[in-house]
Amino acid sequence: MRKPLIIRILSALDRKAWLALGIFLALALVAVPALHLLVPEGSPFHVSTYAITLVGKIMCYALVAVAMDLIWGFGGILSLGHGLFFALGGYAFGMYLMRQIGTDGSYGAALPDFMIFLDWKELPWFWLGSDSFGWAAFLALALPAVVAFVFGYFAFRSRIKGVYFSIITQALTYAAMLLFFRNETGFGGNNGFTDFKRILGYSITAPETRLVLFGLTALALAATLVLARWLVTSRFGRVLAAIRDAESRVMFIGYNPLWYKLAIWTLSAVLCGIAGALYVPQVGIINPSEMSPGNSIEIAIWVAVGGRGTLIGPVIGAFVVNLAKSWFTVSFPEYWLFFLGLLFIVVTLMLPHGLVGLWKQFVAKRAAARGAAPALVAKGASA
Amino acid sequence: MSATAELIHRPEGSDGGSQLGHLATGELDLSHGVALYLENITVSFDGFRALNKLNLAIDDGELRCIIGPNGAGKTTMMDVITGKTRPDRGKAFFGQTIDLTRLTEAEIAHAGIGRKFQKPTIFEQHTVFENLELAMKADKRVWKTLFAWLSGEQRDRIADTLRQIRLDREADRPAGLLSHGQKQWLEIGMLLVQEPKLLLLDEPVAGMTDDETMRTAELFVSLAGKHSLVVVEHDMAFVEKLGGKVTVLHEGSVLAEGSLATVQNDQRVIEVYLGR
What global pTM score does this model have? Predict the structure, then answer.
């Protein structure tokens, strides 16, 4: 019998995975808020604002990493421009946050400060509707989707593959960065958007607002993991992996790879847009450096470190690399890039399946060791 | 125009909504008993005539072997039939109505012509079962595939095919772990679940053991009747076992046609094979 879709989506994860997801959500939605609000600041159990912002930020990165894994790990397409989609989502939502400042800016004007600075008298046309939360949320999804769809359509239709595709995505995000650096583009130039005051009328720095954003990010990450798991276990996911492994054969049995690639590519971009929109209010700033080529390469490193094609690996990779980064950039700021490079080399040479692969190897070895013992006994008995 | 758009804006009178995912124009009509009809096909590459006024007719349900020395045009002929190469001149019809020279490769595949290439190409990371699932006749557009669910009937079909290609015990193994002969069989199975009317098989027993070769011959003989088969092969023991009509190609056109014994005794064929 045909099972309802919701059952099929729910059964994409096994019991252990649901348990892990449940624990994660309980921590993010109950434990962290309680430890932040109810436990006094001096206590060792208090969760600081710094920790919440840091983990919230990394969860956004983890969401991007899962989006990257869909296209790279399962689609075999390495994008080195995913930072662009993340930034577009961030900018789209940032426009709304800029408008929420209202007349509380340094110039006390209705227009955002940078426009006053440029001596603009009114909002440019593309800022229309930016005072609406709904429109901003819509744009954060639609903008990355449209850019990804148009770019992907031409790239995939021309059958651009492999390293050529990766290089073009690098160029794309670099070009966008240069565009956003210009003051005349109308997005605050190299300063970008910052000094946010409110979101939906609530103070953006209030502990409750931070916790709500933190919880929403955790929910978005969890929902993305479930959606992604369902996608890759559906027939769609199997066609995608088949395109990765033998594209011409897929065409020959009657699938058109263009639409499959385009679908996962666009979805991946939309997920990045969601992550960007959640990132900006928590971190309090968005500027063109998010589109720098290095940022996009770093996303690929998170996925590689965690283990591509595993979905959970990229989440682990995003946490490990970014926690290391926040420690390094405080303790040894000048060595961070060396460490990142070293990490990439080590993972590429020694851990082709990332940390998740290492763990699986370990489990398999232990199982083999345990399985070998009874076999020896049996052999001895028969002899 | 995109494939999706073509599917949505299907011109009236074309193959109807019943065969979703099929891009073919015109219904397959085998009422006159001819599955494939090639007339005066000529293909030149930079002045070299790969096919030279080739004429060939395959009956519905027939099992035909094509033999010939290297460079005789066997693979080019398959390329013309599957839309990979366009002929300079000549007609190529599938049944009475489908003009193969006007369709793309995917459209020809959907119309009911399945092709097995020389080198087996299967999805090595997928299980044997999944390979067949992906190949199976279905609506192959993104949205439909996303929500696709195997019906009991489809599972039975895959199970039947697995038995037919003797891989029922390997169903859950990654296809990459199969032996070379088993990979060849899996690819044949992937053709079968597409339910083509005409199968083109390019050296299907290359790399198989003698035992596997004989079993493949039995499989092909059992398929004839329901499907039309065109087999290109060098292995004469295999051709003999298939027992059908044999066509000898030489320098892009038909040199001789008839039973294996007839063509083997044909003086011109002997000259071509043994040299002058």
Answer: 0.84
